[in-house]
Amino acid sequence: MRLLLVEDDVMFGESLQVAIKTEGYSIDWVQSVDEATFAIDLYTYDLILLDLCLPDDSGLNVVKKIRLDNNKIPIVIITAKDTIDDKVTGLDAGADDYIVKPFSSYELFARLRAIFRRLNDRADFLIEYNGLTLNPKTFEAFFKDEIYELSNKEFAILHALLEKPGTILSKDQLEEKLYSWNDPIQSNTIEVFIYGLRKKFGTSLIKNIRGLGYFVSKSPLDY
Fold it and tell me: Whole-model pTM?
């Protein structure tokens, strides 16, 4: 999953960026409202972490613009503003959650998982597909009575494909799920990860249409 962090405190931003990557998410980090607006218009994100006190404008205006555009992307406000009025204003503007600094990374990631559970309408947050089960909390896959510990990027690819069976995802779309802006990308990276996943779970799980991309069948019976 790819997140956008909007935070102008360099020390805090750097430490949070490291924690987020360690948790297995891809993360792009910007430090102003203008940069955030540009990134949101250009890229697709799964969630936004948003400070309110930014150098060029209030983060609340980012929330309002996103919701006016009918964009339902989850937004979590992360801020030192801790009054009840601040929280109510942020949530009423359209934020999905509000966390006051300083906070524990454990609490943050628990809240993110809760948001993603609600979005996927899965109380247990597991993704099941014809005997293959993914657990996004542990980055494990269960298949034929075996437990597979996948790398972050292997899991991200499989998660993206199984979330929308029948939908073709291009190589560029999959790379967006795996990498932040400054991460180096090798030309055959996606192919290597797909090869590894096919070795683990069968060559027929992930299908390819040359020139278009990868998908899993809409009906598990075709797997």
Answer: 0.67
Q: What domains, with CATH codes, occur in the chain?
A: 2-120 (3.40.50.2300), 127-222 (1.10.10.10)
The pLDDT of residue 11 is above 90: yes
* pLDDT tens per residue, range 136-145: 767 789 998 8
What integer is the mean pLDDT of 176-204? 83
Output the DSSP codes for the chain. Answer: -EEEEE---HHHHHHHHHHHHHTT-EEEEE-SHHHHHHHHHHS--SEEEE-SB-SSSBHHHHHHHHHHTT----EEEEES--SHHHHHHHHHHT-SEEEESS--HHHHHHHHHHHHHHHHT-TT--EEETTEEEETTTTEEEETTEEEE--HHHHHHHHHHHHSTT--B-HHHHHHHH--TTS---TTHHHHHHHHHHHHH-TTTSEEETTTEEE--SSGGG-
